[in-house]
Amino acid sequence: MARRAFYGCPRRGPGPPQKLFIRRMIEKRKILIKGGIVVSDRSVSPMDVLIEGEQIAALGDTAGLTVDVEIDARGLLVLPGAVDSHVHFNDVFMNTISVHDYYTGTLAAAYGGVTSVIDFSNQAKGESLMSTIDTKKKEAEGLALVDWGVHPVITQPDTSTLNEIPLAVEAGAPTIKCYMTYRDEGLLIEDNDLKRILMALREAGGMLLVHAEDNEIIEATVPAMIDSGKVDSIYHARSRPVKAENNAIRRCIQMVEETGGKLFVVHMATADGIEMIKDAQEKGLNVFAETCTHYLLFTDKMLERQDSIKWICSPPLRDQSNQDRLWKGLKENIISMVTSDDAAYSWEAKLYGKNRFDLCPNGIPGVEPRLNLLYSEGVVKGRLTLSRWVELISTAPARFFGLAQRKGHLHPGADADIVLFDPEEEWIMNRDSLHMAADWSAYENIKIKGKIKKVFSRGELIIDGDRCLAKKGRGRYLHR
Ligand SMILES: [Zn+2]
């Protein structure tokens, strides 16, 4: 199949050079992506895509158009840029900090076809919720390669923080996260406070994101296991059993019933969780959930390997039957999306957990491989349709997190965030074939079908094959 690109070969209309220059100053640059198959959450159809400046100008048959650049997309899928609404950049956690900052994290994102990320801004002791957003703006300045947003994280549920919730909504960060565990990390929010936050968010028109794990079970089980010498990685999973996740999910659904708030369960990993979400949705409650790439790719068997600490994350990896139910839950639209929960700690830090599972920083780097893995393991294996794949990694996160006008769908007026994807090319995924900053990878020697060829962000070609063309700091804050 032909793969031609016409960079530097514009088809401009006739006219003297000076006139042309003036016209180009006034007009926006036009790029035509021609001959590809446009995949949306609803359709798969051959269409040309016309980009003008930063936006999509038109879709369909563009015969006879005069453009500056024409790109031959024959044989390629044309996708909306992926949206990853769950990443942790510069994340200080369990005695370390993530190696993905706004440069390294968004660089890996860009290579993975991710043109929007939403990070978490944890409230430090004594810090106001609003200043967490400012801190992230400073962290991103001069570094971000793609567009980025913030979910503030409440760690101090006092009156002044609660009073800031409408301000956070106003500042374009209407989705606030709380943790139901991690007391030692200063993240734990007790149920009565969680309920107050849920109500405050309802009043302000926001949504609560919750890390749902029962703290009582974990706080009782982990020390008991350590005391009895059960220190291997597999006990990480056993100390945070399915029951711990289920209890917490049940409790927050109950809170939604009582308050009428809107709830989003992040990184859900259990089959029972799916049934609870399904029941809640059937009752008409505003309860939604995501799962993450690693729960779909790996089971708790990985925790019995010699290099098991790579797969220590929370909630932990579950068994095959839970994983099977997750895939089915995606198909049934009970789970709304797949995110990465990118939490990239160095190998040195992961090694804290070599002989003590409870000391291993919980997290897996994953901002880059999600689009590829979901295609290869989902679409190619018949578990997802092309449209559902695009919906799970792009359209749904954009819609849920207030970006539907600009991101997640290729329609006129939307940002020209576009991935050109070869559905046939095969390659092996490992650390060296990815661009994430961690010095290790959980995704090693995985046979992949499908390859990202080009990535556009707001009309700018930022990834061209193996090259990143994006300038540091071009990424913009997503006011959602
Ligand atoms: Zn997370």
Compact overview of the structure:
With 480 residues, the chain is an alpha/beta fold.
Lay out the secondary structure.
Elements: H1 17-26, E1 30-34, E2 37-39, E3 44-46, E4 48-52, E5 55-60, E6 69-72, E7 77-80, E8 82-87, E9 92-93, E10 96-97, H2 104-111, E11 114-122, H3 129-140, E12 147-153, H4 159-170, E13 175-179, H5 191-204, E14 207-211, H6 215-227, H7 234-239, H8 242-259, E15 263-265, H9 271-282, E16 287-292, H10 293-297, H11 320-331, E17 337-339, H12 347-350, H13 370-379, H14 386-400, E18 418-429, E19 446-457, E20 460-464, E21 467-468
Parallel strand pairs: 1-6, 2-7, 8-11, 11-12, 13-14, 14-15, 15-16, 16-17
Antiparallel strand pairs: 1-4, 2-3, 4-5, 7-18, 9-10, 18-19, 19-20, 20-21
Helix pairs in contact: 4-5, 5-8, 8-9
The chain binds zinc ion.
Looking at this protein, list some descriptive labels.
480 residues, alpha/beta, Urease, subunit C, domain 1, TIM Barrel, 7-stranded mixed sheet, 21 strands, 23% strand, binds zinc ion
